[in-house]
Amino acid sequence: MLSWRAITASFPPPDDSWSGLAMHLDRCEQVRHQFLEQRTTSSERLLWPLHRIHYEQNRLIYEKRFRERTLSRATYAYLVRYRIADGDLIAKWRRRGYRALCSLWAISRCTAARSHAICRVPLRKRRLSEGARAATPALRRLFHPSSVTGCVTCTDDDCVDPRSKQVLGPIWFDDVQPDWEAMTPAQRTATARKLARKSALWSTSGDNAPIPGVSSRGAGSGGDSVASRHAQYR
Ligand SMILES: [Zn+2]
Questions:
Q1: Are 44 and 147 a contacting pair, CB within 8 Å?
Q2: Distance CA 178, CA 155 (A)
Q3: How does pLDDT run across 25-77, given as a tens digit for each residue?
Q4: Which of 56, 72, 153, 154 has the fewest Cβ atoms surrounding its Cβ within 10 A?
Q5: Separation of CA 196 and ligand 1 centre (Å)
Q6: Are 100 and 160 spatial neighbours (Cβ–Cβ below 8 Å)?
Q7: Which residues pair with 172 in a beta bridge?
Q8: How far is the CA of 172 from the centre of ligand 1 (A)?
Q9: Matching InterPro entries, A to Z (predicted)?
Q10: Predicted pLDDT at 122
């Protein structure tokens, strides 16, 4: 994939309203490259960080265009045209019910199999059938990250503040996970909103802040691979 800087050097953007995005795009690209260099297997679980980087990259573009309105319409169209922005994902975020959607994969590939990713079900509504209730591993799976995207929940119910309507973040595999199984449905919703607020990169961090979880793996500072952190989910 071409670097966004190579694209903008060859095909100049219509104006410079994108300049506030430069550091963020550099950081996402750097983390993505580091991840791809280190990756040794193509198992779905090991691709989770890529879904998160893709989300983070597009979320700031969305914020700049549709909330802060500092990114011009022409430059936004340019970013979509050259695939620096994912126009389809961003269009979903403007629809009720999809405002914190982690990835288009969570609603596309799975719906073809007449099912959707588990992260699209609000935490308080996840219940097992009577037969499955006795099986603890089955119960635990209800609160695991989606095997497709690595997202635990990205529903409006869990990830949008009902009063301010502020979209918080999805809760990702590498965010700290509380003991969802031990909670009542109402507690799950309240806890999810608190966690989602911390997970939201653009509202809690400065320009130099690392992308949570993903970059620590890339920089090698944690020494805690995605596979080992999630060995408990197998
Ligand atoms: Zn999701």
A1: yes
A2: 18
A3: 999 999 888 888 876 666 666 788 899 999 999 999 999 999 999 999 999 99
A4: 72
A5: 12
A6: yes
A7: 151
A8: 8
A9: BUD31
A10: 95
Any bridge partners for residue 160, and if so which?
A: 167
Q: Which structure tokens are listed for 123?
A: 């935490």
Give the distance from CA 37 to its chain's centroid: 21
The first and second tokens of residue 215, run together, are: 């970059």
pLDDT digits (tens, 9 = 90+) for 196-211: 988 766 443 444 444 4
Place of tokens 């979209």: 167
User: Crossing angle for the helix pair 22-38 and 48-62, nearest 10 degrees?
Assistant: 170
Is the whole-model pTM more than 0.85? no
Q: How many angstroms is it from 14 CA to the middle of ligand 1?
A: 33
In this prediction, residue 109 carries a pLDDT of: 60
11-30 per-position pLDDT tens digit: 999 999 988 899 999 999 99
CA 130/CA 136 separation, integer angstroms: 12
Using the mean position of ligand 1's atoms as its centre, give its distance from the Cα of residue 203 in Å: 19
Residue 135 banded pLDDT, cuts 50, 70, 90? low
* Tokens standing for residue 25: 């795009």
Q: Is 127 helix (H, G, I), strand (E, B) or coil?
A: coil
Q: How far is the first Cα of the chain from the last one, in angstroms, to the nearest whole number?
A: 32
Give yes or no for residue 216 having a pLDDT over 50. no
Residue type, 64: K
Task: Indicate whether 222 pLDDT > 70.
Answer: no
C-alpha closest to that of 155 among 196, 215, 214: 196
Instruction: Determine contact, residues 193/158, Cβ cutoff 8 Å.
Output: yes
Ligand 1 centroid from CA 154, angstroms:
4
- Tokens (6 digits) for 90: 């961003």
Which residues, by Cβ under 5 Å, contact ligand 1, an ion? Answer: 102, 106, 119, 151, 154
